[in-house]
Amino acid sequence: MLDQLDDTVKEVHPQTDRERQLEQQLESTIRRLHSGTVKAMEKQQNLETECFRKTEKLKSYERHRWMTRQCRENTLQDEQKAKQKLLDLKQLRHKEQAFLDEWRAACERFLRSELDKNVSTGQDNTKKSQEDAYTRTEMLKVDYGNSVDIYRYFSPKLSIPKEAMKEALDRENKLHDELNMSDLRKKKLERDLQEPMDGMSTFDNEIQQSAARETQFQSLLSDRETKLEQAKEVATHAGWAVQNELVLQGRQVKAFQQELDMSSERIRELKQEIIQVDKRLRWLDEVKSTCNEDGSAYEQFQQTAVNCSLLKPKLQQILQSEEELFQRLQQMHEHEKHSKRALEMTSERLTVTWEKINRMSALIDQTCLMFENEKKLQKSLKEAFVRKQRLQEEAKRLLSEEENLQQKLRQMSGVEESVFYLPLTQLKYEQSGECSLFFI
């Protein structure tokens, strides 16, 4: 249409015979320009209304951004809670490891002791030696009895046969040997008696420590199950919240992208409208001299010129507002994309946290096994304590038997001395080559 107007303007001095025809063409052109200007004004109003509505919408979103930030902060707090719960589980795991190390050390001490086997074997040997000594003592007692009965009332004027004296000396030597061996067995039994007492004290202490660990294991297992359920609940809630936020954030990013596209299209339209207004104003300025003030199209020409003059600054103002809106939309779009990426990273961290919590969950079975092993160790310690008690009782019995045996041996020695003391003394001096004072 503007190209046609340019052609019409070139004929600014129509020929007389064409004056009416050109005037009609000019009126038609002005009407078309007026109609286009009216449409442009309507479009300007629509664009202005749309720009205002979008601006208000953005302001409303900005006013309510604190709610979005609050949700985001709550999500981050949930993530921190999940991390804290995981940290609590790790601390419990460290405690479990400490208890496990104590349990292993206790097992090593128990295995290294081997006191039961050594003391028991020693007591068996002592018992066998004591039984053999009882047998020999009974034989000596019989031999002593026969000899003493023969020579108890033997007249001092008569000398005891030399053969009988040698037999008495041999019995005395055997008696001394038995007493010496008895002393050795007694000392060993006294040591054996002390060893079970020390072992019982050690095992009693180990049993108390094991019972304390068992209680701690039970408490730790209960605490671990509670904290594990709490950690799963917090991690699940945090993951659900992040996923919801991600969905909303994705929609928000997409919505801002659409708003940017629409704002860009409105800017393009506004710029195009300003170009068209400039063309109309330029043509109106050129055709002004050809438009007769008395003509029917003059009033419409004037109105069109006024409307075009008013329309351009309005379009420019709207364009400025739209460009400002576009910049704000760009900033918000970048902010929303950044927030979405932050949420994605939060989701990734929560996934890692959840996997670690699941691995901690698998360790509960190990904790239960540790608890059962502690029970087994405590049972073994109690059994060892009972064995130590039995060994102590057996050592006491054997020591009492040994004391009885020594008493018998001393009694036999006293009877022997009452009959054979002087003859044996003389025989010993003779065998040693010394002279007995008894005969001086």
Description:
The protein has helices at residues 2-10, 19-63, 65-113, 115-151, 162-287, 298-362, 364-432. It is mainly alpha-helical and 440 residues long. It has one domain (37-428): Helix Hairpins, CATH 1.10.287. The protein is rod-shaped and about 195 Å long.
List descriptors:
7 helices; 440 residues; mainly alpha; disordered C terminus; Helix Hairpins; rod-shaped
The gist of it:
It contains seven helices and no strands. With 440 residues, it is mostly helical.
What is the secondary structure topology, with strand pairs?
Layout: H1 2-10, H2 19-63, H3 65-113, H4 115-151, H5 162-287, H6 298-362, H7 364-432
Estimated radius of gyration:
60 Å
CATH class identity: Mainly Alpha
| Alpha-beta classification | mainly alpha
Number of helices: 7
Low-confidence stretches: 8-15, 434-440
CATH-derived topology: Helix Hairpins
| CATH architecture tag | Orthogonal Bundle
Number of strands: 0
Residues in helix, %: over 70%
Strand-residue proportion: under 5%
Q: Provide the CATH superfamily.
A: Methyl-accepting chemotaxis protein
Oligomer: single chain
Shape designation: rod-shaped
The major sheet is characterized as: none
